[in-house]
C-alpha cells in the first residue's frame, strides 16, 4: 500500500529533510511552503531520485485562505493524506518588550494555531480509515521559560499529548518532536549578528533529528526531545532556576525556522 505525507515548511531545513527521508521510504509527498520555486526544485529532485509522486502546494500558512486550501487538501478523501508533518515555523528575534505585536501574533498563528487547524482537518479522515500519523515539530524551548516562542511550542506539546491519548487506540498516532538548536539557513537570513555564540557540540544534526522524529512517530511516542544531548539536559533543567533558564533560552531565541 502506498502512503502519502504532507509536509509544511518543506522548502528548506528540517522540512526538506523530512521530505527526503520520507521519499527514501517510498512515500508520496505533498510539499507545502511559501517559495514555489524552491518547492518545485525539491520536488524535481525527489521524483528523479526516489520515483515517488510529489505535489507542490504553495501557501503562506498565516494567510487564512491559503491555510484553508491546505486544510482542504488534507480532508480530500479521494487522495488521502496518511502522514501530516506540521513543521513550518519562524522565530521573533527581538525581545518581548521590543517586538512588533504583529510579529508576535503571526508567530503564534504559525506555531500553534496552524498545527491545530491542520490536525483538525486531517484527523476525521484518518479515523475513518483506521490509521494515520501526525508529527508536530515543537521545541525543547517548550519546557523552558523562553518567551512567546516557548509558549507557542508548549501549546503544540500539549495538543500533541491530548490527541495522542484520545486517538491512539483508534489507529492515529500523534507525536510532538522537540529539537534543541538545529543549524539551518534561518540563521543566514537573520544575519551574522543573530547567530547564537555557542560551540559546535550544541547544534543537533538535521538528519538525525528527522530520523528520530519519524521513528518516534512510528512507535507512537507522544513527546520526544530529540538528540541525546537535549534529552540528557532535560532532567537537569528541572533543577535550574527559571531566571537562569530564561537567560539561556534567550540566547537561542528564534534559532529554527522553515517555510
Automatic annotation (TrEMBL):
UniProt cross-references to Gene3D superfamilies, sorted A to Z: NAD(P)-binding Rossmann-like Domain
Pfam families to which the protein is assigned, alphabetical: adh_short
GO cellular component, one term: membrane
Sorted UniProt keywords: Oxidoreductase
MF GO annotations: oxidoreductase activity
Keyword Coiled coil: no
SUPFAM superfamilies in alphabetical order: NAD(P)-binding Rossmann-fold domains (SSF51735)
Family, per entry: Belongs to the short-chain dehydrogenases/reductases (SDR) family.
Name the UniProt record assigns to this protein: Short-chain dehydrogenase
Gene source species: Leucobacter komagatae
